[in-house]
Amino acid sequence: MNTVDLAPHRFAGLLAPAVDRVFRAGMLAGRDGGGAELSQRYGGVAATGFLVDLRTRLAAPGGTVDGPGFAAITRYHDPVTCQRIVDKQVAHGMLHRGPDGALSATERGTAFLTELYQVHAEVTEELWAGHDERVPRLVAALGRLLSYALVLADEEGDRGGSAFAAMAPPYEPDGTPSGVLLLNRLGTLRYHRADAHAAAWAAAGHTASSIAALPTGPERLAIELETDRRAAGPYAMLGAEERLTMLADLAAFPG
What we know:
Blueprint (H helix, E strand, L loop, with lengths): L7 H34 L3 H9 L1 H4 L5 E2 L1 H7 L5 H13 L3 E3 L5 E3 L1 H21 L6 H22 L7 H5 L10 H26 L4 H6 L4 H14 L8 H12 L4
């Protein structure tokens, strides 16, 4: 029987763009399929922007994103600008900011997120129609990966000040449709790689601004390979055939 040598670090490098492609297609469909209109009803992007980004934590009862977690999630943006945006969303009555900088959704913000979940349910059902076997298979695989990634983070003491720690596990109330589960689990997994990438470029002496400006070349390639290595941990729990199936399933989705 022929086998493919797809070690966890190699799989991490192949999986990342596939995850990005499918996730972005889902979010774009959500925006065009009612999300933008919903946002306008609540005050527009100025009122809802970070709620959309943080939806999978802030939609949970009592869900919060702490200050270090928010800084990690927004690491490529100017922190002063980000806080000004938060100020506006607090003024719109969508976000609450605690004395320690932790963010939570207000009652109005929670209502928006409830409606947003409904929009995402409708658009993903249409966008991923015809993939009735792939969607639940990916949902199950991603659930296992996220659970194992959380275990590894706890074992390594890496649960503070990271984007993944702030956003995992995603909020999944009973009855959440499979399309929403898939969209949000993909989004949460992206934060795991984002932290690995940040650790890789920091170890190479870069900052968020310098890595953004780094051109394609040997140095960037080395950082990407180190990112793959750092992101690989959770993928060790998937068998070789499961890794190939996951890539094939994602490749079959539109986007």
